[in-house]
Amino acid sequence: MKQLIFFTLIVSVFACNQGKQTEKISETKFDTTYQTAVFSDPDRIEKIKSAFAVIDSIYKQHAEENHFPGISFGIVVDGELVYKNSYGYTDIAKQTPASSSSLFRIASMSKSFTCMAILKLRDEGRLDLDDPAYLYIPELKNLKYPTADSPPISIRHLMSHSAGFPEDNPWGDRQLADNDKDLMEFINNQITFSNPPGIAYEYSNLGFALQGKIITKVSGMRYQDYIKKNILEPLGMKYTTYEYADVAPDKLAHGYRWLNSTWNEEELLHDTPDGSWGAMGSMISSIDEFGKYMALHLAAWPPNNNADNGPIKRSSIREMHQPWRFSGLNTDYKFPDGRTCAIATAYCYGLGWMKDCDGKTYIAHSGGLPGFGSQWRIMPEYGIGVVAFANRTYSPFSTVNIRVLDTLIKIAGLKPRELPASKILEQRKNDLMLILPDWTDAEKSGVFAENFFPDNPIDTLKKYSKELFGKAGKNLVVKNMKAENQLRGSFIVEGEKTDIEIYFTLSPENPPLIQAFRIREVPKNK
Fold this sequence. Notes:
Elements: E1 3-6, H1 7-27, H2 44-49, H3 52-65, E2 70-77, E3 80-91, E4 96-97, E5 104-105, H4 111-123, H5 155-159, H6 180-188, H7 205-219, H8 223-235, E6 256-259, E7 262-265, E8 284-285, H9 287-298, H10 314-320, E9 325-330, E10 343-347, E11 352-356, E12 361-369, E13 372-379, E14 384-390, H11 398-412, H12 423-435, H13 452-455, H14 458-472, E15 475-478, E16 482-485, E17 488-494, E18 499-506, E19 514-522
Antiparallel strand pairs: 1-15, 2-3, 2-14, 3-4, 5-8, 6-7, 9-10, 10-11, 11-12, 12-13, 13-14, 15-17, 16-17, 17-18, 18-19
């Protein structure tokens, strides 16, 4: 709420209450309840819907230009699949139309399910992410590492593509049908390393096959069954599976390769019942069902006090979204609309992370196998996400999905969630406005941490504040607090001639006190 304050009134109120201020503060019970970020635009959903026709045309054009036999895509907003559409065919010979219920092999999009299962086992106390992987796969105990000081490969290394294995696309794509006996023989024959473990990102399908084996060992059931029971079924993903033979023929998307100006059908690879390679890329799902999984990820944001009754803790899902292994920096990255905006990238747990020069965060993962290509990409701070499947070998979706998200944001004028100011921030803002600009008896006020005045000489504070307030003019309007987090933020004091920005951060004490302060002129926009 806007608050009109005359400077002379501020001074008089301060003078009347100064003697009681320290006592009042000591007696006050401060509410430090966590504030949850919210969307400020009540019409955001309707504005998003206005972009659907444009989004539809973008995907259709992309499918035509890239020779997709079939494409299916969807948009998820605030936990709901709000739009979906499909073009082309899942079976060219039978002219079976693609639909949102068509089941496509989603390849490496499977990886996040594998990591989610690992985290669930961790949450149950059945393993630790920093455990050496050889505790669960004894064959790894005899690995010959590239250096004498190499650490043993941990589960965390496997989850974040930092085990030191070489990048193994497209070799790994052809291992899906191998069983665990093949995998153990492969390990016993010695794995060739590209790096010592723990120092670099390098994409490894092998690392996810080993996680599948660990899930099977720890849970006592096949990793496919553990994921189905603990993740898929609770989400209502009843048709999502790993083995294409389990899919109804009229729902199964056949895979194709575009070669010599024609589509050539690719052989579908089985998910071996006693094999672990499928943990890196065998999953088969539909837009209808994968949208439920995306909703689970988006529902983990922002942190909140609601009941946490999903298949896995919200905090563990947010943990999946953290950048655990840096992978790149591109200062000249060009977005689909042509603008140059630097990006930083990293790998999380079964997911990729990207942050652009505007501070937007994207969580995503692509999938590619002979006959298929896919990607999902979400923006947790905006509550939106897109997913697209196609049945052409390594169908590209990264650029077009960024374009779709960009388009949604621009057409709908979307803004990220805003964090309301906590009550303690508002209280300290009011405390400051009783003290400024003279700082009279500020050292006795009880609102500043013990470091504050040794770090900020009172004479300098008084001199600079008086100058700025004098320059601003007599009639002052104190604007809303803009919170950065629960204990840090800033606000504007609008003046007749110029504006003032006041920033402060609070200490971890109870009650929190002002430990840092900055005041500066903000010239009015002409």
